[in-house]
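F.,

This is the one I mentioned.
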């Protein structure tokens, strides 16, 4: 979930705003709607989609273990799985907000995909010089695997900080753009 899903998020959400801006469909809304409502509703739908998909995968894995494995303590595993899911979703929200930021910045959807991919690669490269700035920092990821500790709380807060930063920048860019 943690390593493969950021790439899937990039592929699924890169054109949420850029495609409508490119097609010019914003001006065809039936009701006058503020840019804030447009941006935050699309952002919330993307986050809900990520949460639902990852929660479904988590529950399917627990059900598989319940029916296929002997001596499987379903309630205990379900409790740990849901705690891990809540913590593990925070980096995915950070990546989604970063992709959303680029989608609101550029007019062409493919350019949003290229910028997002370049930023993900750049975040991996920057880890060599400034590891505390990269969302791929192993200390941040490690914290997600130790439930109920201060390390996990720090990791979750760092990823929520990335989410707040990218989503706020994306909103400010979207608010100033000419649609």
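My design for it:
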């Amino acid at each position: 979930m943690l390593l493969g899903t950021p790439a899937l998020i990039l592929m699924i959400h890169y054109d949420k705003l850029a495609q409508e801006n490119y097609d010019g469909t914003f001006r065809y809304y039936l009701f006058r709607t503020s840019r804030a409502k447009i941006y935050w509703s699309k952002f919330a739908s993307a986050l809900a989609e990520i949460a639902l998909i990852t929660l479904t995968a988590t529950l399917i894995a627990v059900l598989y273990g319940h029916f296929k494995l002997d001596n499987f303590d379903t309630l205990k595993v379900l409790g740990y799985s849901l705690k891990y899911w809540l913590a593990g979703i925070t980096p995915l929200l950070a990546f989604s907000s970063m992709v959303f930021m680029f989608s609101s910045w550029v007019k062409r959807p493919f350019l949003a995909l290229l910028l997002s991919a370049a930023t993900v690669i750049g975040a991996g490269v920057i880890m060599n010089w400034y590891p505390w700035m990269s969302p791929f920092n192993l200390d941040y990821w490690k914290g997600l695997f130790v439930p109920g500790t201060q390390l996990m709380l720090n990791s979750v807060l760092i990823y929520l900080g990335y989410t707040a930063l990218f989503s706020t920048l994306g909103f400010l860019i979207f608010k100033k753009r000419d649609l």
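The chain has one domain: 4-176.

Talk soon.
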